[in-house]
Amino acid sequence: MSDSQAEPIFSLPVRVYYEDTDSGGVVYYANYLRFMERARAEWLRSLGFEQDVLQRHEGLVFAVQRAEIQYLRPAIFNDLLAVTAKLCARGAASMVFEHEVRRESDATICCRGRIKLACLSDRTLRPKRMSDELLAEIANVL
Q1: Is residue 5 part of a domain?
Q2: Which of the chain's ends, N or C, has fewer CB atoms near its CB within 10 Å?
Q3: Which is it for the CA torsion 82, 75, 70, 28, positive or negative?
Q4: Share of the chain above pLDDT 90, in %
């Protein structure tokens, strides 16, 4: 849907809110997955695709099939983070992303992740091929 080649690494700024932390003010480990999810959603939006529209018009939804997470340094309340999403592989009904969560103030990498998404039919929850239009846009990123 876009006219230009997309950047190979998408970055989303995320502020750490109180709700993202545990009682010690450190980002709760599962919230890094939420940050990565937001980055993937915004990456897809930057290509001109909305997930609700893909579901409504194509019956296509995305589900995490595999997640590999490496926690390196803690992020804390009020940190500004850069959450990156880089598409590193794709099939007709899958995508693999590499993520980094980096603290903006000192460029410390807090977390890394590798996430494999399955593309599914919203009715059957079985693998479903992405549309030619979506596959063409994604091909511009790789």
Answers
A1: no
A2: N
A3: negative
A4: 90
Q: Which residue has the tokens 């999403």?
A: 85
Number of structural domains found in the chain: 1
CATH number at residue 48: 3.10.129.10
Question: Which residue's entry shows tokens 């590999």?
Answer: 68
Distances (CA, A) of 56 to 51, 60, 78, 88: 9, 8, 36, 27
Residues sharing a CB contact under 8 Å with residue 45, sequence separation 6 or more, in sequence order:
none
Cα atoms in the Cβ-side hemisphere of radius 13 Å centred on 105: 7
The pLDDT value recorded for residue 140 is 85
Tokens representing 125?
A: 């929850």
83, HSE (Cβ side, Cα atoms, 13 Å): 24
Parent domain of 40: 13-135
The two three-digit tokens of residue 135, written as one number: 């596959």
Phi, psi of 12 (to 5 degrees): -125, 125
Phi-psi category of residue 51: left, alpha or beta, with phi > 0 → left and psi -120 to 50 → alpha: alpha
For 61-109, write each residue's pLDDT tens digit.
999 999 999 999 999 999 999 999 999 999 999 999 999 999 999 999 9
Which of the residues are catalytic? 22
